[in-house]
Design brief:
Elements lengths: L2 H29 L6 E6 L2 E7 L2 H4 L6 H11 L16 E6 L3 H9 L4 E6 L26 E3 L4 H12 L30
Parallel strand pairs: 3-4, 4-5
Antiparallel strand pairs: 1-2, 1-3
Helix pairs in contact: 1-5
The structure holds zinc ion.
Zinc ion binds next to α4.
Length: 194
């Protein structure tokens, strides 16, 4: 193996390692009966914030994992000592599910350096699946950022399925689902089949 592919391999391993940390946060969300999405923000090769979805707990649909962590980073004087235009320009996000359009836009406004995600967000994905808020949409001010999916994708899908096959006790009227069977087959993304 040559030097370049050696480096690429160790980089891939690092991405997977950070994504495993994000998966732990998704597990924590699942244990708390939240839609299991977790994330970590990495700066200078260390985690500066980790978070998970808290929308049910706080009864607030904006409390996605990414925004929870961003709020904490911005309110921490060590992590954000001065107010700058793009406080996340040296920070990388690892999140188990593709950021939704709301979070993808917030990340762009904060100048995030780069994003890695697990599985696509078919309904609300803001990093290419529904809308390319990260780099396809023109913006007069905020710089685009790169978003790459597929890291721990199977695990990210399976934990979502584990959540959706159990009763959502927070729903006003819990729906009885006839076919609560945990599916284990995972189909590749369409754009992977080329
Ligand atoms: Zn979101």
């Amino acid at each position: 193996m040559d030097h370049t592919s050696d480096q690429a391999e160790s980089l891939e391993k690092a991405h997977l390692r950070w994504m495993q940390e994000a998966m732990l946060m998704a597990e924590e969300a699942l244990a708390a009966s939240e839609v299991p999405v977790g994330c970590v923000f990495v700066r200078d090769n260390r985690i500066i914030a980790k978070s998970r979805n808290r929308t049910n707990e706080l009864r607030n649909a904006t409390r996605h994992a990414e925004l929870e962590a961003i709020d904490r980073i911005l309110s921490d004087k060590d992590l954000t000592p001065i107010i700058v235009d793009y406080p996340l320009s040296d920070t990388i996000l690892y999140v188990t599910v593709e950021p939704c359009m709301m979070c993808a836009s917030a990340l762009r406004q904060m100048g995030i350096q780069e994003v890695f995600f697990g599985c696509e967000n078919d309904k609300f994905g803001g990093c290419g699946t529904v809308l390319g808020v990260n780099d396809k949409l023109e913006h007069p001010k905020h710089p685009s950022y790169k978003a790459t999916g597929g890291y721990c994708r199977d695990e990210a899908i399976m934990i979502l399925r584990r959540f959706y096959v159990t009763e959502n006790t927070n729903a006003p009227v819990p729906k009885a689902k006839a076919n609560r069977i945990l599916k284990t087959e995972i189909l590749p993304k369409l754009r992977d089949i080329v």
